[in-house]
Amino acid sequence: MKNIGKTAVNLVILSVVAKLFGLLRDVVLADCYGAGSVSDAYLIAISVPTLLFYFIGNALSTSFIPMYTKVEREKGTEEAQKYTDRIMTISLLLSTAIALLLIIYPRGVVAIFASGFDEERISLTADIIRMSAVTIYFMTAVNIFSSRLQLNGSFAAVALVSFPRNFFLIVSVILSTYFGLWWLGLGIILAYLGEFILLLIPALRNRIYIRLRLSLKDPYLLDTLKMVLPVFLAVAVSQINKVIDRTIASNLDVGSVSSLYYASIINTSLQEVLVSSIVVIVFTNVSKLVANEEYGQADAIYHKTVRMLRFILMPATVGMLILAVPVVELMFGRGNFDTYAVSSTAAALRGYTIGLCFLASREVLIKVFYAYKKTAVTFAASVFGILINIGLNLVLVIFWGATGLAVATSVSAICQYVILIIYYHAKMWKFSMKAYFISMLKPLIGCVLMGGAVFALDSILTSSFTSIFRLLIDVAAGVLIYGLVEFLLRADEMNYIKNFVINLFKKRNHIKPGE
Description:
The protein has 515 residues and is mainly α. The protein has helices at 2-33, 37-75, 77-104, 106-113, 119-131, 135-151, 155-159, 162-179, 182-205, 219-250, 256-291, 295-322, 324-332, 339-353, 356-371, 375-400, 402-428, 433-461, 467-488, 492-509.
């Protein structure tokens, strides 16, 4: 846990910087195009290749890490490398099929992902999709390189991979306002090419080479394909949720797709900074422990990880619900992003924020199930979740519009997590459910007191300060109040944080000059 904690802190720092750069990309897009037809078309176009690849790429990479660990332990590094080559070859073949679909029939793809678009938005979206179809190949290579580097303990390079992507996306959006919208498609190509080159360098340094091999007789490959199917279905079901949300949003007012996107970007900032970094490390370490049949340590890592995430994300959820409007104003409230866009995005943000803590816990738990190769369970939970999402979408969109879609997504995530944690308790690890719920009481008390204080303070500051100073004061006060309450309540998580900081400073003080 100490090693995981130290690595996680380093990754969080890198992720914070990367996320800030990513937010700059969205700020630039909002400033240049607001929440209108061009931004709607661009956001659908940039998400289509990613979503289609995600079905395959995420399923393969999720199955790849535990299977690679098994091959290396049983057959050695050389056989593990051959296994990697075969996975890459299959991925490239599947990527070719996706790329041809996007090039030949982009308008049909747009009809699936954004059925409510008018002819102008359909044409623009189709042009960008056709132009950027080649990015599928770069995504494939990045996906495999990332998994191999994580297995080698090279997490930093993977955390930095978004920098070239966001740089080229920012530059291309700005240039498109001067030289034409075709720059949007070119920017997507350069973005994923930049990712590939960034990971290729550390991959070669770690002697990670990819050769094209294809042998369907490889027993490990066959085991992977058996494992991939339920993972693929679970991932597909999860991504279908996003497709359904955007399809319904495309039939609402112009800008609804953009408002949902901007809201989800803000809401997932904490998740991507904290959860994504930690999930990568936990999944890699738990996979190795499960492969060595050290189940007790694997479950202990999961338990402590979720407690710390919950301790951090519960107050973050309360704060985001209270401060949604000033957060949106600070992030996007300039240029073509008008008052209506701020209001609709803030409403959607509150809808997404409801499920933030549960979504994070679900992501960690899903990776633990994958490490144990319990993929059928995650698929069943995903199917149940999408049924809940579809049903609530159809009802809530009538009353709340795009905000209803965000609320439905949150409720779906909560339902999936409940199913998974019940199964985990019943079939895999008999932890105390009573202690599990009691551990939530102290953070909950802190959230209530912090929320009341921040709400009152923000009401006082609204007419006196700009968004940035108002947020700085609100957030600082909230952190101090929550920390003080948890310290007085002697929350276990505060001890974890205190011990970690003490050990970190002790280590630095023992480093001699020149070491």
